[in-house]
Write a structure and sequence with these properties.
The protein is of the alpha+beta class. It has 2 domains: about 10-50, no CATH class; about 55-150, PH-domain like, CATH 2.30.29. It is built from 4 helices and 8 strands. The strands form 2 sheets. A 5-stranded mixed sheet has the order 4-7-8-6-5. Strands 1-2-3 form a 3-stranded antiparallel sheet, with helices on one face. A hairpin with a 4-residue loop joins strand 7 and strand 8 (about 125-130). Helix 1 (about 10-20) crosses helix 2.
C-alpha cells in the first residue's frame, strides 16, 4: 500500500481498501488517510446536511436568516431592499439544483426541505427564495414590515 497521493472516489473504494485489504489504483492512499477521508466525506458531509437548520425571523428592521451550520450568525435583509415578496411553491431540484444554500436560474435560495417558501425580489432585481413550513404567515409578516418602512 502506498501513502498519500489520490483520494478515494467514493465510500465503496474506501471500504474495499479497508475491509478487503485491496487498495485500488496506481497510487492508493494509506489506510489512515482512507479512514479520515471516509469520516469527513462519507459521514461528516452528509451529517452537515442532515442536521442543517434554517432559522428565519422577521424583526422591526428586516428579515433575519441563519442557516446552521453554514452561517455563524444571522444575515439581515433590510425591508428597504425588498420590493416584493410572495409565498409560493417551487421545484427545488429543477429551479435551484436541490436543497441548501443554492444558486439557480431564479436567483439564490436558502432551503432545508420541502417545496414551499417565500420569494423576495430586491430593488436590484435579484431574487432570494427562503424555504418555510408556513410561507403564507412568513410572507404576511414581511409585507407588514415593508409597509411600515414606506
Amino acid at each position: 500500500m502506498g501513502s498519500g497521493g489520490r483520494y478515494c472516489r467514493n465510500d465503496v473504494v474506501c471500504i474495499t481498501q479497508l475491509l478487503l485489504n485491496r487498495p485500488l489504483g496506481g497510487r492508493p492512499m494509506s489506510n489512515v488517510m482512507a479512514v479520515i477521508f471516509w469520516l469527513l466525506f462519507g459521514i461528516g458531509l452528509p451529517a452537515l446536511f442532515l442536521f442543517g437548520k434554517l432559522i428565519t425571523e422577521v424583526r422591526e428592521d428586516g428579515v433575519y436568516v441563519q442557516y446552521i451550520p453554514f452561517h455563524r450568525g444571522f444575515h439581515r435583509i433590510p425591508f428597504t431592499d425588498i420590493i416584493k415578496c410572495e409565498a409560493r411553491t417551487y421545484r427545488p431540484i429543477r429551479e435551484y439544483g436541490g436543497w441548501g444554500i443554492r444558486f439557480g436560474s431564479r436567483g439564490r435560495a436558502y432551503n432545508v426541505s420541502g417545496n414551499r417558501g417565500v420569494q423576495l425580489v430586491f430593488e436590484s432585481g435579484k431574487r432570494l427564495l427562503i424555504g418555510s413550513n408556513r410561507p403564507e404567515e412568513f410572507s404576511r409578516a414581511i409585507q407588514t414590515g415593508i409597509g411600515r418602512k414606506k
